[in-house]
Amino acid sequence: MARLRQQLTDWGNELGFQQVGVTNIELNEHGERLQEWLKQGYHGSMHYMADHGDMRWKPDALLPGTLRVISVRMDYLAPHIDLISQLRNPDRAYVSRYALGRDYHKLIRKRLTQLGQKLATEVEQLGFRAFVDSAPILERALANKAGLGWIGKNTMLINRQAGSYFFLGELLTNLPLPMDAPYQQDHCGRCTACLEICPTQAFVGPHVLDARRCISYLTIELDGPIPVELRKGMGNRIFGCDDCQIGCPWNRFSKPTTETDFTPRHQLDKATLLELFQWDEHTFLQKTEGMPIRRTGYENWQRNIAVALGNAPASLDVVAALEHKRPQVSALVQQHIDWALAQQSG
Fold this sequence. Notes:
The chain is α+β, with helices and mostly antiparallel strands and about 350 residues long. The protein is built from 15 helices and ten strands. The chain has two domains: about 1-80 and about 100-175, no CATH class; about 195-345, no CATH class.
């Protein structure tokens, strides 16, 4: 088992994972925290967070017989990406850095499955199942227990050598591998940069996020109108938000990815709001094929850009674009265009 554990790290590195850890399935403490978070209603309309009973903190309910969870991380920040300039230019569209390239789910799940297959060549009757942000499982808690990092005040998993710009994945297995030591030390200290930088003040306190105020929730998860009082804080962010990571000092140690699939597509790391607002639904579906952005849907994409245009500097071109688009869109998007026009005239 010790030899297999070392091979696991070697195989993981060969498959593009920067770190591999192993832990057990004991998550009761994290399950209690989740239940308290849900009781406060901080999950908003993400009702799936409350589904599946206690399955989220009992991995063996997902795969009966599970004894260990192999947790992996993969860097995603593309080289030569300027995190700040796009945010500072209100005429440009900000898309969360993780979403600029290919959808990570398929890539990482495929690599995890290959990792499981390598184990299967060494062990008879091996059971395993791969997950990548696609099942009711507490992946950050498992990664913390597997020694990959600590859960920061911004609720992200942070690693001293790599910051937090990485994806996580899990391989559940019935193999009793040696376990890694949990990452017990919290290196956030007195720093509260991530809490203070949040544009919509979504943090109730350290380690507690009210998702209903989070820009990632508002632009991706939420269907329907965006609360008026939160629209100004969204700025030019049209899909997700990275501010609590940008503000984290540990991300000065983040490493650029070597995965070409995470390279920005269609120059979305430099696109203007007016350029993206001109996309019709066919163009949206064509341009976002195989990308995380497609998840938000075309209507919400237009809604988000309308809000961002309302936050842009007053411009006749912006007003003309909003007025031109208004008759072509749904009542939901019209509502946000009307708000944007009022902001522009104001």
